[in-house]
Predict the structure.
Amino acid sequence: MKPLQQASALPAGGSSGLTILVVFGIPVTSGTKRYWGTQRVARMCQVTPATVANWIDQGHLKGTRTPTGHRRVTSQDLVAFLERHQIPVPPELEPAVARERVVLVEDDVNYRRAFARLVERAGLDVELVQAATGVDGLLEIGRVQPALVLLDYGLPDLNAAQVIERLLSPAHGSDVEVMVVTGGLPSEAELRLRQLGVQTIVQKSDGMHVIIDAMQDALRRRKGAAA
C-alpha cells in the first residue's frame, strides 16, 4: 500500500514556505504521554531535523528542550500542529482505545496459565486479570472494574454464589456480568446462581474454546447494551 500523503504550506526558518508530506506507518507507542524527537518528526513529515528544530524554535510547533538540549514534542502538540495546518493525523497518533478487562477467578494455576495462553493465541483484544481465590477476585474486580468475570464455582475460600452475593452487596454495588465455569455443580447450586442473575454457566469438560466463545458472546452483549 502506498503511503497516504497530504500537502500543506508551513513556515520554516523564515523562508517563504515549504510543502510538508505526512507519511503514515511510523510506529508510536500509545497509552501514555509520548515525546517525539526532531528526527522522528522529520521522518514522519519528510523534512530535515533542522527544519523541525526551526519550527519549534520559532513557535510554529510547540516543543520543549531536555537538560541536554534535545528538542521534544508531545503527541498531543504534534496532533494540534497537524490539525492546525489541515493535515490528516496518522492513526498512530490517535488516542488509544482501552482494552476491555476480564477477571479470571480460578484456583488451579495450570488452568489459569493455559487459559491465558489460549486468549493470547486467539488474538482477543482483552486484558486478562487473574485471581486464585474468591477474596482476591473481589479485590481485583474492585480494582480494575472489568467488563466480565469468569468465576470458578468451587474456590478454596468462597463458592461462586458467595462471591456474587458480595458483588451485589452495597459495599461493592457492581453490575458486572459474571460467567460461572465449573467442573460440575448440584442443581440447587445452579438454581441459586440463576437467581443471582448468572446468565452463562459453562462446563470445564466442554473445553476452553467453548469458554472463549461464551466469553465473546458476553462481551458482545455488554457492548450491545451500552450502544
In short: The first strand starts at residue 9 and ends at 12. Helices lie at 38-45, 49-57, 75-84, 109-121, 134-144, 160-168, 187-195, 208-226. Confidence is low (pLDDT under 50) at residues 1-8, 11-32. The longest helix spans residues 208-226.
